[in-house]
Each structure stands twice: as structure tokens, then as C-alpha cells.
Design goal:
Helix content is 10%, strand content 40%. By secondary structure, it is mainly β. It binds copper (II) ion.
């Protein structure tokens, strides 16, 4: 399984290299910091694993998918949560402790090319 760490700069580069969505079998990281998900919007192909990593120094967050009533426990700094997306669709999520701060994101899962 290939692993690609997405920072703000490399996310743009990765998009250019792959021609769009992350591909099946890949792991794409979303950082949680400054009460936000980075990137907040992400497009991946079916079969991609998204790993949310808490990059804060002391704040905990979670990842909650309200439409499916599933998600992570509270994640403390350096802890992570993974989900592999097997069905195309739009998956909005948010952080339950920080819902009022609009800490939210969305994963768009597209069919493999
Ligand atoms: Cu949060």
C-alpha cells in the first residue's frame, strides 16, 4: 500500500500528478489542526483510505459522519482514525466537540478510473 502524506503544498502537487482523486489502495492524510480539517474537502477514488491525524498540541477532536451515525472516538494529539471508502458518494463529517466552531469536512468518493 502506498502512502502519501498530504500537506498543504503537496496536496496541490499530488493532484497534478494523479490527475485528480487519490487512487484505490492509497492512504491519504487529513490533518486536524487549528480547529479545522486540512484539507477540508477531499476527492478520492473508491478503495482509498483516509487517515485523520490530530496535529494539535493539546486539543482533541473527533470525526463523525452524521448520515451514517458512525465515526471515531475523541482523538488526542498524534492519535489517528482511518476509514476506507468502498462506495462512491459524498460523505460529510464534522467534529462533535467543535460543531459550533464549524469544524467540518467532506470526502467525495468517485469511481475508480
Ligand atoms: Cu474538533
Amino acid at each position: 500500500m502506498r502512502h502519501r502524506r498530504l500537506t498543504l503544498g503537496s496536496a496541490v502537487l499530488a493532484t497534478l500528478l494523479t490527475g485528480g482523486a487519490a487512487q484505490a489502495g492509497e492512504v491519504v492524510e487529513v490533518e486536524m489542526r487549528d480547529y479545522g480539517y486540512h484539507p477540508a474537502e477531499l476527492e478520492v477514488e473508491v478503495g482509498t483510505t483516509v487517515r485523520w491525524v490530530n496535529a494539535e498540541t493539546r486539543t482533541s477532536h473527533d470525526i463523525h459522519f452524521p448520515e451514517e451515525a458512525l465515526g471515531s472516538q475523541r482523538l488526542f494529539p498524534e492519535e489517528s482514525f482511518e476509514r476506507t471508502f468502498e462506495e462512491p458518494g459524498t460523505y460529510p463529517y464534522h467534529c462533535r466537540p467543535h460543531e459550533k466552531r464549524d469544524m467540518a469536512g467532506v470526502i467525495r468518493v468517485v469511481p475508480a478510473e
